[in-house]
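Submission sheet (multi-component)
Chains listed below:
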Amino acid sequence: MKPVIAVSGLRKTYGSGETAVHALRGVDLVVQPGEYVAIMGASGSGKSTLLNMLGCLDMPTAGGYRLDGFSVAELNERQLALLRNRKIGFIFQSFNLVPRTNALSNVELPLVYSGLRRGPRRRRALAALELVGLSDRAKHLPNELSGGQQQRVAVARALVTGPALLLADEPTGNLDRASTEDVLGVFDRINAQGRTIVVITHEDEVAKHAHRVVRVSDGLIVSDEVRRRVGALA
Ligand code: ADP
Ligand code: MG
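Outcome: structure written.
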């Protein structure tokens, strides 16, 4: 099986000389299709830096990264943007929905540049909204939705392109307990359908849902615990 993520000797240094910050100091990580991985660690341990590398949002100082078989280092900016668009669905703490644009149009947005016509675009966006349990909110604006609902719209938007990887940075950081459970329920469902998920979090609540927990400390992976194999029953 081709790994979704294959990272080796990944390093990231911000700045140089005496003020250099070694945010990642040699990270090796392989994530197989269908895995649900939580990356945990204290504030400042390098989680967001790692996410930026995994998401091709920033380039490492050293080390290799293959995303769904593609070697990231060999790509130019344009190819990288394309790879990111095709392979990764991002979910952020702050939802990042477009205001004054309804839920359906928000979900449709990543498909606008895909060359897909309006009809099929709509149908795929509606299917993604249905997957997160929000078919009945398609015409609502973000500010007419609860935080949990807004984040589910963001999940639908991340899924609509059929990405190889769902990458989430503190997705429940702005949510209350009930909304957190809603969003985690959606993650469970889409992972059960085979979607690969990597979620960065400092909440045990979130990590409990993942099948594998990777702990980062001071720019290094210090533990990697598999709780449940891909495809194993809960
Ligand atoms: P976490 O997400 O786990 O809180 P980060 O990856 O944000 O950790 O940060 C890891 C280290 O790198 C910290 O010491 C932080 O101050 C530093 N850092 C992060 N981003 C930058 C940047 N753009 N420039 C300089 N230092 C940074
Ligand atoms: Mg962070």
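Remark: The chain has one domain: 34-48+76-226.
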